[in-house]
Structures are given as C-alpha cells and as structure tokens.
Amino acid sequence: MRPTEKPFTLTAQKVSCGRCCLRELCAPIDVTPQQEDLLHALVKQQHLSIRRGDHLYRGGMPFHSLFAIHTGSFKTYMLTDDGRERVEGFYLSGDMLGMDGISGDTYTLSAVALEDTGICVLPFHRLEELTRESPVVQRQFHRMMSREILRDKGIMMMLGQMTAEERLAAFLLNLSQRYEARGFSATELSLRMSRQDIANYLGLKPETVSRLLSRFQDDGIIAISGKNVHIVHIDRLRAVLGFGDGIYFDQLP
Amino acid sequence: MRPTEKPFTLTAQKVSCGRCCLRELCAPIDVTPQQEDLLHALVKQQHLSIRRGDHLYRGGMPFHSLFAIHTGSFKTYMLTDDGRERVEGFYLSGDMLGMDGISGDTYTLSAVALEDTGICVLPFHRLEELTRESPVVQRQFHRMMSREILRDKGIMMMLGQMTAEERLAAFLLNLSQRYEARGFSATELSLRMSRQDIANYLGLKPETVSRLLSRFQDDGIIAISGKNVHIVHIDRLRAVLGFGDGIYFDQLP
DNA sequence: ACAAAAAAATGACTTAGGTCAAGCGGCTCT
DNA sequence: AGAGCCGCTTGACCTAAGTCATTTTTTTGT
After folding, report:
1. How open is the CA angle B30-B31-B34, to the nearest 5 degrees?
2. Which alpha helices (H) appear in chain A, and where do they start and end?
3. Protein B11 CA to nucleic acid D24 C1', in Å?
4. Which domains does chain B show, CATH number per domain?
5. For chain B, which terminus, N or C, has the lower number of CB atoms within 10 Å?
6. CA-CA-CA-CA torsion sign (A149, A153, A159, A162)
7. Which residues pair with B69 in a beta bridge?
8. Is pLDDT at B151 greater than 50 in this prediction?
9. B86 vs A156: CB contact, 8 Å cut-off?
10. What are the pLDDT digits (tens) for A89-133?
C-alpha cells in the first residue's frame, strides 16, 4: 500500500530559522522579546529537510513533536480503511503541523511534502514546559489549537453545503489570501498540489475540478497554465460565493 | 433572524456535579485524587441550567469559559453570511463545549440545548492556571483539544467521500457508540434533534434523511417510531459502511 | 533530448440526491 | 381537550456532479 521510500529520520541540520516559522505561535500579539528568545531557542534545536514526495510523519507513528514549516508546503491526509486517502489540508510556510498527534500517542494523519521543504521541530514536551512557564506563550499555543479547530469547522461548512463551483472558488480565494499574508501575490498562484489532491480535498472528482477550472477560464475569471493560476477578476471569484468578501472556509493566517 | 429569548445569564445554582461532567478532562488516565479535587473545585463554582431551545452561548459573544455538559444534549451551529445555519455537531453529557472561542475573544459557534440541560462552567483563565500547575492536567487538556480536531477531521472525511446512505449509517452508529459509552443502550436511541438538524449536519436534505430512515426500516435494519430508533441489526448497519467495525467519524468518548 | 508514463482536459452518458408539491401525524398552546 | 401548526413522510420529476472513455499535455527518467 505504502510506497517504499527512505525511512523517517531526524536529519539535524544547521539551517537558520527565521522568525517566520513561528508565525503561529508568536503572531499576532505581544510575546516579549525575552519570550520570543525562549521560543526560538526551543525551535532552533532541530531542523529537517524533507524532499518533495517524502513524509514528515505518517499516521501510526509515535507522536513526539509539532512541526513549523519554514519553507515549502505540505498536504496532510488520512487513510481510509480500504486504503484510499482523504486529503485533509494544505499547509504553507509558517503553518504548524502535527496537532493531530497530541490526543493519542501516535499521529493520526500523514503529512507529505509537496515540494522540497525545510521545517523546524518543536519537541512537544519542551513546548508544554514552556507554556507552563509563560502564560502568554500558553495562551498563544491554545489559540493556535483552537484556530485549527475553527479551520476544520470552516471546511466542514464548505463540504456540507457548497456546490462544486463554490468550493473551487473558495479554495482559490483561500489560497490567494494565504499567499498574500505571506507576502506573495494574491493573484498569481502556483498550485503545488495535483488536481487529484484538490478534488479530493474539496470532496469532488478530478474531472469536475478540471471542468470548473476551464469554465472559470472561459468566463475570463482566471487564466490557467498548468500549475500556475492567474486570478484576473478576484471580485467575480468572490461573487461566485454569493457574498462580498470576508474569510472563506479556512482562517489560518 | 434570531428569535427573541431570554438573554444569556449565569444563573448560579446549587447543583451537585458528579464526576461525569469532567469525563473529558479526567478520563481516561491517571489524574491523582489531589488533582481531581482541584478540577472539581474549579468546576464546582458555577452551574447553569439551560432550557430546551435556549442558547448556552452564541457566535460573537465574548469568550470566557468552557462548558462541561452535566446532563442533556446540545447542538452547535455556525451562521452563514446569508443567515442560514450549518449544524457542526451534537454534544452529549460529559462532552466539552466552547473550544471554538479560545482562538479569538469571542465564541464562533452557537450552542443551543436540545432538551433541558445542566452544565458546569470552567472559567478559561482558571483552567489555564491549573494546567500551568499540573503537567498531567495540562496534557489532558491538550489531548481534549486535539481530540476535537480529530473529531472534525473525521466529519470532514464523512462529508468528503461518503454517500448519503453511509453518512446516515455512520451517524446512527456514532450515536449508538456514544450512548453506550455513557451507560445507555447501544440499540435504543432517542434522537433529541430534528430530522432537519440531522440532515444539515450530514450535508443532506431532510427529505433524503427521511427516505433513508424509511429504507433502513423497510430493510429491517432499524425500527423507527418518531424520535425513537431501535437498531435491530447493528452488524448490517455496519455493513452499510463497508467495513466491520471500529470508530466511525467522530471519536468523542 | 527523447520516449514512456503520468496527469489533465474534454465529451457522452448516468445517477444519487435535490427540488417541488401534497398529504399525514404528533406537539404545543390556549 | 381540541385546534392549529410545524415537522415528517412520500411521490414525481430534475439537475449537478459522477462515471467511463478518449485525447492532449506535462512530467519524469534515461
């Protein structure tokens, strides 16, 4: 079932970890420089490079750490009993991975790199220690977990009541928003994931995603060239959702 | 849009709170009696009685507490921009409510009682204090939040790739499992929520839910009488999902 | 740089579930 | 207790999205 590939190893490396990889924990509030130093000390200890197609973790592996994405992007998925996969989300630089592992002793999802990536390892027991010492860091960590819950509620909303067209529009707008928050263009998207993955994530079939992308292009809303999507009329894309603006189905910063 | 009803007030009452209402925090592990006392001291402070149809909290209200359901059941929902509601979940005695409020300063969902209920209030800042003092309680709280995340991933899975028939079977089996975990019959379910709510939760239309319940009954799998469902052949209900047993789409204990 | 393989696009047709409409029955309220 | 209302059920029909099949494009490995 699982493709053979090199086993999961913690390849410690000397990679400088900018503050971006702690966006979720530090931002958006008043972590004092001192506390920030603590966080950076924590995260600076271990770094990993995960190549495109390799796994950061797999469902069933013992849980020990959370991971902050320094560069690159991941998809997470869950395996069904009959071996098919269900894509649960796409994570970009600054996002935190691994929270699905906290409740048990093992990770529940699997995380696979969509491109060559650099990630920071946060040993969970160290993070817990730190949150016991600093109420501010504690609160920030709790916010982070709660945000993941909200994110999921948003996706449930989408899967529960949006049409295929609305889902795809919401997906593109969400990506646009997140790219923008990272300082990239909000209208020039580079889709790192396959149409298959997009379809799976949105609860659709690849053919439907293909058709809809073509339709959006024919309507002049977007221009596609392979993995690159140019959003020509972001307002018309918003209009597909039937309301002006706001947050779509996934509020990750 | 919102029906007028008595405003949200913290009607402190003298209700004895059995340990059941802290299932999520204490169970299943080794909280020492001492720590358990701390938790109970925390939770014993405030109790609420919420009548059927009344709200425990509403999206937009300032966040201050988590709530443990002592008796009764709730549904949570989110309002869409155009005022329709999306049912996010059903919560039974022992379940924890309000985690959607942690990430912001306000609750995001709304929680409405499906019957007359008794709930315990856990002021969040007190809970955070407590988790700073006790690593065991801290870990347990983190597990609880992570379990909520997993629960949502499970629902996403359902909404993303199950047929209507599978969703309804999963819903019934999930309820059965949770009733059983609370010491009730696994085969005699009393549905506290409307067909509308079930449909909305499952991403279906009420007519479809009705038809499927009738079909399950015609097939002899269940026997329905209004809100009461008797599961006649739980194995055949499991077979609808295409695999033997296990956990369905929602692992709340 | 080329060939093979995988991914994506497109068309024809099917179907699960939605929509609309009508009748039934069990609660709620006075 | 009885009237009225709302929620539930059921039927007939429709449509959005899925399925299957074919072609085109992109990616990958030598």
Report:
1. 135
2. 23-26, 33-44, 124-133, 135-161, 164-181, 195-202, 206-218, 234-240
3. 68
4. 19-157 (2.60.120.10), 162-240 (1.10.10.10)
5. N
6. negative
7. B119
8. yes
9. yes
10. 999 998 999 999 999 889 999 999 999 999 989 999 989 998 998
